[in-house]
Write the structure tokens for this entry.
Amino acid sequence: MTTPRPAGAGAPPGGPARILPGAGRAARLAARRLGLLVALLAAVFAAVELLPGDAAGATAERGESAAGVAARRAALGLDRPLAQRFWDWMTGLPAGDLGTTARGQHVTDVLAGPFPNTLLLGVLALALSTTGALALGGWAVLRPGGRVDRVIEAVATVAFALPEFVVSVALLLLLSQWTGWLPAVTLTGADGAPESWDMLVLPLLALAIPQIGWNTRIVRGALADQAGLPHVQASVLDGLPRRRILVHHMLPGAMPAVATGIATSAGMLLGGAVVVETLFNYPGVGAVLAGAIADRDTPLVAGVVMAAGTAVSLLLLLADLIRTITLGERR
Amino acid sequence: MGVTRRQLLWAGTGIGAAGVLAACSSGSGDSKDAAPSGAAAQQPRVGGTLKVGALGKASAITRDPHGTQANESDYLIISLLYDTLAVPGATSNTVSRLAASWKPSDDLKTWRFTLADGAKFHDGTPVTADDVVWSLQRLRNTPAGKSRLPGIQPEGITAEDAKTVVLVSDYPNADLPLLTRLTTFVLKKGTTDDALAGAPGTGPFKLDWYRDGNARLVRNDDWYGGKVLLDAVEVRLFESPQAMANALLAGQIDVASNVGAVAARTAETHKDVQILRRPNDMAMPIVMRTADGPFADPRVREALKSAVDRDAMVKQVLSGYGTVGNDILGTGDPALAKDIPQRTRDLAKAKQLLADAGFDTSKTYDLLTTEDIAGLAESATLFATQVREAGVKINVVKQDSKVFWDESWLKAPLYTTYWGTNDSVVFFASKTMLSDSGQNEAAFKEPTFDEAYRAAMGTADAAERAKLLHRLQEIEFTKSGYLLWGMADGIDLAGAAVRDLPKLPGYGRVQLEKTWLAR
């Protein structure tokens, strides 16, 4: 097997032949993800269509006449076939046009503030859950079956099993209402971002804690698998310090599994964001999505899915790369 | 307190309006009463920034003063920036704002509105009748424009001179100024849709910044309407009432606007939080179809009106944050017929009426509802339990909001509805009970009612009109398809330093120019 290379890092077309198979694989992978995204967006259009009512009716004012609603239905293009609406929306994408919402605003404008906020929270939560899981999983595996291991195992299981809203409410009571240490909700300033950094802490913890639970178990399992391998056993017999063995001999081998776990987390974080954003009034894309579904606002729903889908796809691609790189190094 | 209120309502003509008002505002209804002791003696002072939380959805944000404002946060921002011709008042339904005065022609069809002296846009240019005409025509030409300015054609809106706007109605309308209270926001003539975000208003506050439904507004020192007290108002959008209440309890905002009864219950234990009640804020009546079906017989409708336990409804559905209703809509109206005796629970009478009408008690009847607002579905469930004691079997069906408004509203024999936008008897009569009204929820066709309405609207003399309006309400009380068991209070939470928040129901809550901070 040839050494796969990261996409984009390959040589230009016509470069050394040795690189091409890897680049081709990366391109195929990217194409498959793109295809998946298109299928997902088509499904979104179909799903919103299947919900009772439509955007013209959902955003109508009480007292708006049937003729008025019909006129707006036509103005929104809702009287055209679904396939045609989907095609029109898709063909606008290359130009960066995500369409117009049922209330007549550009989808890109509606998402311009909330999406970066969600991305910020998501990336921070992912970083926190990764470091947290690596630290706890590593600590647990130092003495397999020991007290620390058993406690971490139990706590991680509980943390993952708890729904986000339970974690959120507990954090809110503990860190805001009873102690007054942190602000209860996020308020938005003139730039569309949270007014102060400490407002990020509660939503961040609420999102990260269940994922730390999930990833700790994966990290611990992957590290335990490594512990039985000959080169690790050899380093133990050599009398190397435990931490050094963990970081230099076990962790690299565990990375592919860990990367996959983290990529899975990315999807779950986005799901949890809807709940957490509402509870902490975090100005993210989750709230926009919930409202857009209620309004049957297909372009807006698709816009959110498009943005989130692209972000998750990029993360999955990154996880793939980590796998290929680490596996490549080990072969 | 519930008992006191009920007794006062029963007391009838004697204490009348004053009694009801006192009952509603005892406890914490009045912002001054609710303030910490000694605060009532304080003089209003200038300065400070008020942070207000208001409900809204990030997906439904709008900047258009004449568009559909689904978000309270948007409506609040727009109302602080732009002025309407008139606003709701405490002793009169309609009080002046950008229109300083108005005068009808003898036939009550042509109304002349004179603009307030010194009214200027935020950029310094004076407000002219042309601006107002242009704005009203823009409003009239929106999809819901016809129901916002009923009876007024676009060409019936003209300028007589720089200060005078003329509105011509298709029919005599003694209460036409009432129509100018809600969304008649005035923009500069010719403002294009893409310039709305920065369009200057005439209101008590000017825009500092706006972002994603949140805004900061600063005092307009040049406001024609008088001295504005606050330096600035900051509006923050909240998706959930619970998060908004948490923000208030944590001191992150000063006011949680229209936060609801659940949050009020949470806040009851916090001493430094004011719970402010705006009575007559929201009607959520049960509608019985009068044209046909099982409730077409007026005796059946009266039976259900007699079978409901109104006190229990207010206590349980509204957590006590409300007042008992008497099946007449428009309870905040000074013209409400308070001398009509309050209906109370009488199961024997209900059973007798059902028997007289030959009502089929072996059947189960569907009561359709939705969970659009807190308490609505709960009201249906409790009602079903109560009328079972009179022998009427009701099955509550909760529908998805869209399905409910498309398929059940205006059509079903029995359903719940709600109105939070207006409070006058005439508003409900014209919108929901005239034979040809577009939103005739109970399919109510009663010639005597129509006659009383037309006569009242065609009568200029106030005393004579009041008599006719009373007649109208008697008919509504005996025959209409509305079972109005109670009115929900609007509930705001406020920090200890907030003074003189608006107390009027519905959209009366958005006028913050007299609000001040004691800190």
